[in-house]
Amino acid sequence: MKKLGTRFFIAMLLFGLMGQVAWVVENMYFNVFIYKMFNASAADISTMVMASAIMAALTTIVMGALSDKLGKRKAFMSFGYIIWGISIISFAYIRSIMLTIVMDCVMTFFGSTANDAAYNAWLTDKGDSSNRGLIEGFNSMMPLISILIVFGGFMSFNLNEMSAWQTIYYIIGIGTTIIGIIGLFLIEDKKGLKKTEDSIFKTIAYSFKVKTVKENSYLYIVLAAFAVFGISIQIFMPFLIIYYEQTLHLSNYVLVMAPAIILAAVVTALFGRVYDRMGFRKAIVYPLAMLVTGYVLLYAFRHILPVFIGSLLMMSGYLCGMSVFGAKIRDLIPENKAGQFQGVRIIGQVFVPGVIGPYIGSLVLKNAELILNSDGTTSFLPNANIFLAALVVIIVLAVMLYMIFRVRPNEN
Predict the structure, then answer these.
(1) Element (H, E) at 195
(2) How many domains does the chain have?
(3) 270 within some domain
(4) I need a surface site. Which of 93, 144, 184, 219 has the fewest CB within 10 A?
């Protein structure tokens, strides 16, 4: 197995964790922000998620290719995180839904440049087929740990007050910027990383060429499956916190979810080695089984214990699935082409799920129950149908994977 070194894991911890903290705030709490501060509808929330997904895809396509063209990851990661943090601070001064959506796209540009494009290309550069599962298992812990950090940190804030949100945006923004500064001294590009000789336009277009698709057909098939996986997650994820707090009346949802998050993080870390030993087609079965069971429990029950177990299985399946798909995709990306393929990766991981998933979620919640707020306005209540819709999509994915493995029985 290729040795990665302590410096690599420290850099991975800092950049991976801080990046995920910033993404958790965006993906799970921007929705709460506009719901609480501006009485946003399900359509408003889905629009914001879709706009951010489109920006993330476009940014990663261009900036990932540019990092290949210049043969650099460090500069994009470090300076990207610095500006990303500054853009997060700007949300402390936002006072409307529309401006939140616009600035979310601006913030996503810098975040996707630094994290989706450069950081993910750097991870691909540093690993090989002997340690992909280890890297992805470690990296896939970051979203759960970041959720725990954000949930725990937010307990001390009254999210019904604008002043609390201002403090949050300053803390997350400054933290992200500091990590970028540290990266200037910590990050090391892969030795021998070569610049792409093609023009920037050819570099951007490379992963979209018919010839490239034919030469790497299995990579694109796995990406398509990954997109379906992500659609299932994005049906409910934008509404999850609101569902816990407003629909289930779990005012202490952080205390309920924290143990589930910790256990799911442990499961995800250990599961990375399962991929290295068993390969993709066997390893992916377990996350799908956990997701199906978790969805059924979350759809069928409202009491704390089954909701806790369902959430644990849902989160474990989600992160373990991300780990397995991520490792397989990195294995299939051609040598020295990591940056150019981050664009198609983000289309499968973020763009397609981010557009289709929230749209399905908003359709499911179109006639959701309304509640009257103290100021005379109304807000919608997410219901458990979002988990039923997510379950249907996962079943479609299971059938899809079964057909793929029958056509490619020896591909692993």
Answers:
(1) none
(2) 1
(3) yes
(4) 93
User: What does the DSSP assignment read for 141-193?
Assistant: HHHHHHHHHHHHHHTTS-TTSHHHHHHHHHHHHHHHHHHHHHHHHH--PPTTP
The sign of the torsion formed by the CA atoms of 69, 73, 79, 84 equals positive
User: Does the residue 412 lie in any domain?
Assistant: no
Find the DSSP H helices in 301-374. 304-332, 338-346, 352-364
CB neighbours of residue 393 within 10 Å: 23
- Residue 12 token pair: 């991975």
CATH number for the domain including 389? Answer: 1.20.1250.20
Q: Give the pLDDT confidence of 50-84 residue by residue, as tens digits.
A: 999 899 888 988 888 888 888 888 999 999 999 99
Rg (CA), the chain: 20
Is-contact 173 58, C-beta < 8 A?
A: no
- Nearest CA among 347, 339, 63, 57 for reference residue 196: 339
Tell if the pTM clears 0.85, that is, is over it: no
Three-state secondary-structure class, residue 367: coil
* Contact assessment for residue 13 and residue 141, using Cβ atoms and an 8 Å cutoff: no
Query: Model confidence over 122-148: pLDDT tens digits?
Result: 887 877 766 766 787 777 778 778 877
Residue 1 lies inside a defined structural domain of this protein: no
Which range of residues forms the domain containing residue 282? 6-407
Backbone angles phi, psi at 376, to 5 degrees: 95, -10
Output phi, psi for 368, to 5 deg. Answer: -65, 155
